[in-house]
Here is the input.
Amino acid sequence: MKFSNKPYFITLTNKFTGQFFKEYLVDGLDKDSVIQTIIATCQIDPLSYNIIAEEASLGQANSWIEDKFPNGDSKHLVVDSDKKIVELLYNPMGNPYE
Here is the structure.
């Protein structure tokens, strides 16, 4: 899957605790439509989660899609390939290269 429009990083945090919940990478046209797409497709409750959208570069988005963990697993899960929505995964051990 390759991104072709404007990719956005969507970060979800719990409104009550402020803790990170999930992060998505979505190909869209504008910030508002991407947020609405995430709410509908991923069944996110906007009353429980803060939804922050930040525009990414095409190069950054496509490199994340191609990137893999050291064990060969992909760094994302495809949520909807037609709408180009992926959930970003992070290594629970943190970045061993820092």
In short: The longest helix spans residues 31-41. Strands lie at 6-14, 20-28, 49-55, 76-80, 85-88.
